[in-house]
Amino acid sequence: MSHPEGRRAAFAVHNHLLALEATARLGSFRAAAEELCVSQGAVAQQVRAMESKLGVQLFTRLPRGLSPTPAAEQYISRVRLALSMVEDATRELLAAHDGSDAHQLTLSTTGTFASRWLIPRLPGLGLKHPHIALRIDASEVIRPLAGRGGVDMAIRWGTPPFAQGEARFLLPGRAIAVCSPGLKGLEAWHTPQDLARAPLITDSHANWKRWFETYGHPGMPFAGPSFSQTSLALDAAEQGMGIALVPELFVESALSSGRLVRVLDDHYPLDTRHGFYMVTAEPVAADTALGTVVEWLMAEAAAHR
Q: Are 224 and 199 in contact (CB under 8 A)?
């Protein structure tokens, strides 16, 4: 039997690891705090305590967010695996003793897709299928499908075939240019050439380069802030830092509320030639919990298109 102090220390380490993993996945102390239902200060303190104990800087502080350092990447990936194993063991223990028909499934996708499209629709899944608990693993890291430490399904960006799994088309990746309604110069931008003089926000997809090529201006020089994630680019656009070129489905709510407006009256969309796909390890039977979630997501996407 372990000593009570040892148990308390183990729980403290577990909480520190949860804070570390959530911060790495979501890119900020604030977002991690919201997910873990604690204060932002508590998350920051736990991460700094980890850095102090390990003697390693775990995050690079960016102007708008946090990014794991190279030294932390491998460590955090193993932390995720360990936490996943703990979750699996707990889920199996509960299922073996509660006698219920509840099913818990894990869906992997990017943080931007989760926050901008999926989460607003999740209450509908709970109302329609209350026996299914869907865990969202929001990360830029591609998790393996099925197996130990894997996920049950994934929503991925790109074009098939993917490295593993059965892919079904979910949503198109058509991108549009958007900015804050108060962005200076907005009223003077009418053509692609005009936008070369505007602050253009870029992310890891390099959409602006393809956009200028599409509309007859290859190699057009442009400048503006750059971010590693689309969610950060959208935040920057809403803060009036420039124009973002992002999948249309990510900005529908912001356009409806007036936080963002279309640039060039949407006459110049970008066909990214990519889309969002539902991916599972193998064909899914409709009469399973996984099949129920897949069909629900496909129906939600079809209604959206």
A: yes
CA-only gyration radius of the chain, Å:
21
Report residue 240 as tokens: 């009036």
pLDDT at 11 over 50: no
The model's confidence at residue 13, banded by pLDDT at 50, 70 and 90, is low
Helix (H, G, I), strand (E, B) or coil at 266: helix
Place of tokens 């693993």: 137
C-alpha–C-alpha distance, residues 169 and 211, integer Å: 23
pLDDT for 151 equals 87
Q: Give strand pairing partners of 244.
A: 178, 201
3-class SS of residue 249? helix
How many angstroms separate the CA atoms of 156 and 159, rounded? 9
Full strand arrangement of the beta sheet holding 243-247: 200-201, 243-247, 175-179, 261-262
- For residue 137, give every residue at least 6 positions away whose Cβ sits within 8 Å of its Cβ, in sequence order, or none: 106, 107, 108, 109, 143, 151
Of 152, 155, 177, the closest CA to residue 167 belongs to 155
> What b/e sequence results for 97-120 when a residue is b if at least 16 CB atoms lie within 10 Å of its CB, and e otherwise?
eeeeeebbbbbbbbbbbbbbbbee
Give the pair of three-digit tokens for residue 35: 């997910």
Burial grade of 43 (CB within 10 A; 0-12, 13-18, 19 or more)? buried
DSSP string, 26-74: HSSHHHHHHHHTS-HHHHHHHHHHHHHHHTS--EEEETTEEEE-HHHHH
Higher-confidence position of 18 and 171: 171
